[in-house]
Write a structure and sequence with these properties.
Layout lengths: L1 E2 L7 E2 L2 H4 L5 H14 L59 H17 L3 E4 L9 H10 L5 E5 L4 H7 L5 E5 L5 H6 L2 E5 H11 L1
Parallel strand pairs: 3-6, 4-5, 4-6
Antiparallel strand pairs: 1-2
Helix pairs in contact: 2-3, 4-5
Length: 200
């Protein structure tokens, strides 16, 4: 299939990578798995046995007229433990490589279909100045954009770092969440070829 390039003639790309059907279920699974993998999972609270103290019972079992109490660290007491305390856990979800690649292909195909993929021959800035990059993006009418190249250019990365709705990634650093999070994805021809290699 043909893919239009902004500043050059159209290029021939793989139908498998850029022309497949959109599998919403698979993309959803990939996005959820990716975001779950980013969770720290280190939350921890103390149960009645974790709270320091409370070894000796506050008063005897019988004869006081008060409700029986075995420890001052009971969850119903002030200063006691938490009833269902949070424990550290691994939130990561298993996603086969084959499924991940299929989800990425599905996202790229949908970006092409909805005219959200802007292909350019090359994209770089001479100096690491935000003003220069902003001027370039304004000329292309891009405000909310992910810039993907085959390798991250240091000047480009530094220039984009302070822009709120602009991100720069290389092909290896692209993920399902970043690809669908922006209005447009600006991608270089070399990055397109790299995606074909990795996902083909």
């Amino acid at each position: 299939m043909q893919l239009n390039v902004n500043d050059a003639q159209a290029i021939e790309v793989s139908e498998l990578t850029f022309g497949g059907e959109f599998n919403e279920t698979l993309v959803h699974q990939a996005v959820v798995a990716y975001m779950a993998g980013g969770r720290q999972g280190s939350k921890q609270q103390k149960t009645r046995s974790d709270v320091s103290g409370g070894g000796k019972r506050p008063w005897r079992q019988k004869g006081t007229g008060r409700a029986r109490a075995g420890t001052i660290r009971s969850p119903i007491w002030r200063g006691g433990g938490t009833t269902f305390a949070a424990r550290p856990q691994d939130h990561s979800q298993k996603l086969n490589k084959k499924m991940y690649r299929a989800a990425m292909r599905s996202i790229l195909a949908e970006l092409v279909r909805t005219d959200r993929l802007v292909v350019v021959q090359d994209f770089a800035v001479e100096t690491p100045k935000t003003k220069d990059l902003l001027g370039k993006l304004n000329n292309m009418s891009l405000t909310d954009v992910l810039i993907v190249s085959d390798a991250v250019d240091q000047n480009l990365y530094l220039a984009a770092r302070n822009l709120p709705h602009v991100d720069v990634r290389d092909v290896q650093g692209s993920d399902p969440v970043s690809l669908i999070a922006y209005d447009k994805v600006l991608i270089t021809v070399s990055a397109v070829k790299k995606f074909e290699e990795l996902l083909g």
